[in-house]
Specification:
alpha+beta
């Protein structure tokens, strides 16, 4: 079972996370930010990842450190759980409609970090969440996992719908990327012989 627990303590956040890549989409999330909780719960459910996140962050400042650091820890959790990436598809993509929004996400768990982000969120906030933090989360997640992530907004006017579409599509793309390729479970998906 590809499962890990990570504890990360800094002067800005204290995070305890459990990830089971081969889960059922069960979650227990408390970040101190209601909208971020919602996005992580969607991520767990749509990726079928079991996810526990407990974060105490400097929310008296804003949600920046909390969001970025959770992205870091989530990427680290996937990196640890996937070990040498043996047997995985490596690539995953998904196009997700969310009411008027349409979001495409493609992932390559390549060992290299990159985020392509072609998104226009019309408002600066959804509730008390700064919408610019979506990109910060993706950057942190990409760097700590070692993954190329491309996000493209094809349509959308409602900020909540656009962001929800991003997290759901990311989950579905990750679900495909981390799945085992049948018949090649012992093969590292790279001609280099390594992804790390």
């Amino acid at each position: 079972m590809r499962q890990t627990t990570i504890v990360r303590e800094t002067t800005e956040t204290s995070i305890n996370m459990m990830l089971n890549v081969d889960g059922r989409g069960e979650y227990d999330v408390d970040t101190g930010c209601g909208f971020l909780n919602h996005m992580l719960e969607l991520f767990a459910r749509h990726g079928r990842f079991d996810l526990v996140v407990k974060c105490l962050g400097d929310m008296h400042v804003d949600a920046h450190h909390t969001t970025e650091d959770i992205g870091i820890v989530l990427g680290c959790a996937f990196r640890e759980a996937l070990m040498d990436r043996r047997g995985i598809n490596r690539y995953g993509y998904f196009m997700l409609p969310m009411d008027e929004a349409l979001i495409a996400v493609a992932v390559d768990i390549s060992g290299r970090a990159y985020v392509g982000y072609d998104v226009n969120i019309p408002t600066e906030k959804v509730g008390d969440f700064d919408t610019e933090l979506v990109k910060e989360f993706l950057l942190a997640f990409s760097r700590s996992l070692g993954a190329n992530i491309h996000v493209k907004q094809l349509a959308g006017e409602n900020s909540h719908h656009i962001i929800e579409g991003i997290f759901k599509a990311l989950a579905r793309a990750m679900k495909a990327a981390v799945a085992y390729e049948e018949g090649f479970e012992n093969e590292i998906p790279s001609t280099k012989g390594t992804i790390l």
